[in-house]
Amino acid sequence: DGTTDITRTVHWGIPTSLQKEAYTRVLMGNIDLSRLVFPLDTAGGTVEAFARRALWDVGLNYGHGTGHGIGNFLSVHEWPVGFQSNNVPLRAGMFTSIEPGYYRDGEFGIRIEDVALVVEAQTKEKPFLTFEVVSLVPYDRNLIDISLMSAEQIRYLNAHYETIRRRVGPELQRQQLQEELEWLQRNTEP
């Protein structure tokens, strides 16, 4: 129970090289912001560019916000948390979406949206914050060009996939959903 907001773009056919590159760069931005460590009293607008950098590197961008607060049994777009210039500083315990995207008019659109909890980071100097992604949904492997990703991004993705397996797999087993469990295993392989 609660409020959630998760988006996954999928491709049911053979994606073009541009679609794969755009998707991968959106995923890279999602990962870069999700794994960011930042000081206390940092507003979302200050770190928002980390989600756009992989797109900006090749002259691409998106025209929507990078994320918004998510209330518990409240509004799915819960102000004042988020990544806009008028949002409050991020604090431990806040939930926000992280949702970079890319849209090519008349051709295709990509959005990868996760829900993340702001948590205290494990650093030598305190207090620093980071995000814990709580969305346990795999990304479309058909659209990922792993050659574009850094070693750190790949490690993060593999760790996230292991978390999905560890948390969702036992529930699928408990419910005797074998086909769904096999799908989960295939789509969360390293």
Structural commentary:
This protein is an alpha+beta fold and 190 residues long. Helix content is 34%, strand content 14%. The protein has a four-stranded antiparallel β-sheet. Strands 3-4 form a two-stranded antiparallel ribbon. Helix 1 runs antiparallel to helix 3 and helix 4 runs antiparallel to helix 5. The chain is globular, with a radius of gyration of 17 Å. The two termini are 30 Å apart. The model has no long low-confidence stretch (mean pLDDT 95).
Topology:
Blueprint: H1 17-34, E1 38-39, H2 44-47, H3 49-56, E2 95-98, E3 101-104, E4 108-111, E5 114-120, E6 128-133, H4 151-174, H5 178-187
Antiparallel strand pairs: 1-6, 2-5, 3-4, 5-6
Helix pairs in contact: 1-3, 4-5
Distance between the termini: 30 Å
Radius of gyration: 17 Å
Q: Would you list the SSEs in sequence order as H and E?
A: HEHHEEEEEHH
SSE-based structural type:
alpha+beta
* Main beta sheet strand tally, sense and closure: 4 strands, antiparallel
Total domain count: 2
Mean of residue pLDDT values? 95
Number of helices: 5
What amount of the residues lies in strands? 5-15%
Question: How are the strands of the biggest sheet laid out side by side?
Answer: 1-6-5-2
- The CATH C-level class name of the largest domain: Alpha Beta
CATH topology of the largest domain: Creatine Amidinohydrolase
Shape annotation = globular
Helix % is 25-40%
The CATH architecture name of the largest domain reads Alpha-Beta Complex
Low-confidence stretches: none
CATH homology superfamily of the largest domain = Creatinase/methionine aminopeptidase superfamily
Number of strands: 6
